[in-house]
Amino acid sequence: MGTVSLQLVGQSPSGTVYRLRDAVVAVDGPAYSETWDTEDDPDRTSLSADVDVGEYEVELAEGWRLERLAPPEPPVTVDATLLSDNPLAFAVSAGARTRVPLRFRVEDGDVELDQGYDIEIEVEEPLPPAVTITSVPSPTSDSTPTISFVVTASGAVSTECRLDGGAFAACTSPYTTPALSDGAHVIHVRATDGMGRTGDATAAFVVDTVAPSVIITSGPTQVVYSTTTTFTFSASGSPTNVECRSYARGAPSGAFVSCSSPTTWAVQFPPPPASYAPWTFEVRVTDAAGNARSATWDYATAIII
Question: For the whole model, what pTM was predicted?
């Protein structure tokens, strides 16, 4: 003799519980032919019978369904497809463990409700969602920076974002933050799939809307007749780039070039027939976030006629 049984409830590795409902199962063999109905006793978690050793078939009639159980929430019927043969042949052997699965495809993965000895339920679930933050500007001079992320998942997910440990709120990529204060911040993105499983990612970034400072401390105070003149300046606020240029006063133009203090500047003389020309010397400092500030010094050049 042996025992054939059908487990109606089981737990997946992730903790998800399923139950076979509204199922009429026909078991047919050498000396045993019966029909089991899972709803004859809705509280039962398995159906079984002692049978003779031999070859058997099990057939699942139309109308069955699978429920996902997540107390205290009510059971939810999931979309499911029977993948195994129907009817399905199996053998009961004396003194041997027999495992014959009924395999279903559901939105959460593959579910096996097994018949035979030491029956168990198995669920092969897809991986939980994974979140990758692909772009976060830092440092940035934008107080409402835009952050991009991607979610890898086998099905539909909901995404939420939060800043600096605050409350999560629904979001999509690209995500533009509300106005932020200067300083360090952390973005946290979370994705949740239909089974309640989550994946998340965080990224730190810095908002800096304050430009560095620069002051020109000395330059020519009288008309310049020589071929060069010298300017000195001081900067603060951790600039990463310092540039200078000179242009005709009132008409800013020309490219900036890298410079440092003191800088000796080649004098531009007025084109003939003029003998006097006003100029402006400009220093621009820029920080890592792109904030920039300039200082100017007016001077004049002349040629002796």
Answer: 0.57
